[in-house]
Amino acid sequence: MTWIAADRPALAGTVKPGDTAMQRLFHTLPSGVREAADATVDLASAPASSLKVVTPHASNTLPDGVCRALWVGTAGDVAVIAEDDTVAITLTAVPAGSVLPVRAKAVRVAGTTAGNIVALY
Length: 121
Fold this sequence. Notes:
Blueprint: H1 2-7, H2 21-28, H3 31-39, E1 51-53, E2 69-74, E3 76-82, E4 89-94, E5 98-100, E6 104-108, E7 115-120
Antiparallel strand pairs: 1-7, 2-5, 2-7, 3-4, 3-6
């Protein structure tokens, strides 16, 4: 890591042995860019912080709004309306234990045969 510190003396105290390649790259960015990167967190790809059991319904949306993903506990089909869609698309033959990386706003009862569905927020 000394080559970074030698090339950029202001970074000498920030790059540490054991830093990952991404951490080393981050420390080489100009300070204004580092602050902007810190402020830009993509919550859609962050780990879930809340879980809610999903009950498929004919017309209701998910009670806590658009989720980050759906977990399917029992194999089957899932009729889901994605965040930017207006009609349900049925995802067929979803295996048990699958995480569907879709920002869903509703799961429809018509077309859903899978069970134990959980919304990840």
